[in-house]
Design a protein that fits this description.
The protein is an all-alpha fold. It is built from 10 helices and no strands. The longest helix has 19 residues, at about 100-115.
């Protein structure tokens, strides 16, 4: 796997979340607390502030530090879930991962998120984007293909009935709305994919 400019990646991710914060808030207002965009923006601005600090660490340590920062700054339900994703990924990934290691580590991170959220694929959560992305990594799809798969997976949450999180309280009324967490996950996947694609 090519070496990543982690500082550039963090900055790009923060820009992406900031640019889409209102969209994420609107999605969350429909079936959630309405604070997803604001919470994610706050968390990623915190990452931006420490981007050079993270970039100076070995990749596993950087990912664990990023996850810890997200837990502390994002808040709501998303903080622990996104934080768990990065912390678990940091525990499993090597300093210079190949595709096999990345895929295996990402799979373990998804398991940690599922355990933390007591959820599974098909329940209208971030898992509905994370799992297809892991499968795409395993299938050695291109960065652009993975980004498209993530976008499609987020859109596929629209007809789902939410079975976890605040949206689950709405029952059938949650149907017809995209999950905000799934959308933010897809946005982050596309940002990463674009930067990796730039290095190709």
């Amino acid at each position: 796997m090519r070496a990543l400019d982690l500082s550039r990646l963090i900055t790009a991710a923060a820009d992406t979340i900031a640019d889409h914060a209102e969209e994420l808030t609107a999605l969350d207002q429909a079936i959630g607390d309405g604070d997803h965009g604001l919470n994610m923006k706050r968390g990623f601005e915190a990452l931006r502030s420490d981007a050079n600090v993270f970039a100076a660490k070995p990749l596993p340590d950087a990912l664990k530090a990023i996850g810890t920062k997200l837990v502390m700054t994002v808040g709501g339900a998303s903080g622990p879930l996104f934080g768990t994703l990065f912390i678990a990924l940091g525990k499993e990934i090597s300093a210079d991962p190949d595709n096999a290691n990345l895929t295996a580590a990402f799979g373990k991170a998804i398991e940690a998120v599922a355990a933390r959220g007591k959820s599974q694929v098909g329940q209208k959560t971030i898992l509905d984007v994370l799992q297809p992305v892991r499968d795409a990594l395993a299938g050695e799809k291109t960065a652009a293909e993975i980004a498209d798969i993530a976008d499609a997976a987020a859109k596929a949450t629209v007809p789902m009935k939410a079975l976890r999180g605040r949206a689950s309280f709405l029952g059938d009324r949650s149907i017809g709305h995209m999950d905000a967490g799934a959308r933010s996950t897809a946005l982050l996947v596309r940002t990463l994919a674009q930067i990796i694609g730039d290095k190709a």
